[in-house]
Amino acid sequence: MDLKLMNQKMYLAGQWVTRTELIEVTNPEDYSLIDYVPAASKEDMIYCIERAKLGAKTSASLPIHERMRLLHTAADHVQNDSERYAITIASEGSKTIQEARKEVSRAVETLRISAEQARRVEGRTIPFGQMPGSESRHGYYYRFPIGIIAAITPFNDPLNLVAHKIGPAIASGNAIIVKPASETPISALLLAEAFDRAGLPENILSIVTGYGAELGDILVTHPSVRMISFTGGRHIGETIAKKAGLKKLSMELGSNSPVIVLKDADLEKAVSSTVSGAFWAAGQNCLSVQRIYVETEIYSSFVERFVEQTQKIKCGKKLLEETSMGPLINEKEAKRVERLIEEASERGAVIEIGGRRYGSFVEPTVLTNVNRLDPIAQEEIFGPVVLIFSVGSLEVAIAEANSVDFGLQAGIFTNNLRAANKAIAELEVGGVMVNDSSDFRIDAMPFGGIKGSGIGREGIAAAIDDMTEQKVVCFLDD
């Protein structure tokens, strides 16, 4: 099918506008031109913030049932046009068509969960009589919208991560300005189209396409913006945090996710799950399996089977049904990953399979004998590379898993409940997946990490909590 794109327009405060200066959106598979999007100016961003002040008032006044209707109707539009969305995701980004279809279905689910969660923005009564002298008082607290939310989203989930910002914002009665990744802006614009068709009032939503260096400081530092929801790299996240001032921050900054495989585990399940978790979306996934710690007794067998399954991964054209892994987002990123592999190899790492780059493609790569202090073991690779280590015990595995300055999610494979509980208690992460890889998430669950992996939690209910404030009401009876 043909892509029906946005005709070089962006969505500013409910209006579709274009600009003289345009940004090319290209396919990382072959560098072919997909379309152009406007390069917004500083004045455009300031305009959106000013209009969002009105939008915040409009959004806060929307009845809950109307917020729910808008979210469900937008979800309907995405679902009914799902193949168009999937082809767009696969064309401008790194995902294969199969991976893109899954993202579309998740985005629909995210919007529907947001609609249902809108009815659960609740408060509680407060027993003021617990304090002597306050027996004649009664009251409660309720949650109210924070106002204007800035959302900055990455390239790797260009539709669903945008839905994770917009859905909770509308459900909780806020206005939101989204700055999508310059590499993959069209998916975000298509989501704006769905809300526009659903009848979302003007000024509540803006999708501002352009360069982060041009627009970011205004969006982050403007005093009218009360919350920043950022998903992306740690360095940029730290920069935003220093510049933001007194604002709420929610940041998911990636990871270097570990998985532990004990000798009593279901080996076939552990291998298949970690192969998928390592190479989904070419490893450009914050939950991607990067380090696997396998007990010594089963290490050789695990590596052998892991390599066998990795050999079956078919790289190639993203829109072909049989393709299971696409390219990295651009050749620069592919060269960065290639350099990490080469440097690790020069320091003694063994390339069990893969290791080569072709344009923006990097082969699925398995490394063993990696020095635990090597940058490839300490940093987030964000590419199709996995490291497998042999460990003598669960205690050692947990210590090694915790040895990096990230802590988003981890996995452990074992049939021993005591071992699982020990890992749950001691792994320094925001989530532990038992008998699954780190690469598991449903859109309703609280999601986030500790240490360098960020602050706060996403997931619809958790995001709504962050996007609202508590107001206490107290009545004196006499």
Automatic annotation (TrEMBL):
GO molecular function, one term: lactaldehyde dehydrogenase (NAD+) activity
Domain Aldehyde dehydrogenase: 16-473
Pfam family for this entry, one: Aldedh
Coiled-coil positions: none
SUPFAM superfamilies, sorted: ALDH-like
The keyword Oxidoreductase appears for this protein: yes
Signal peptide: none
Protein family: Belongs to the aldehyde dehydrogenase family.
Protein name (Swiss-Prot/TrEMBL): Aldehyde dehydrogenase
Organism: Alkalihalobacillus trypoxylicola
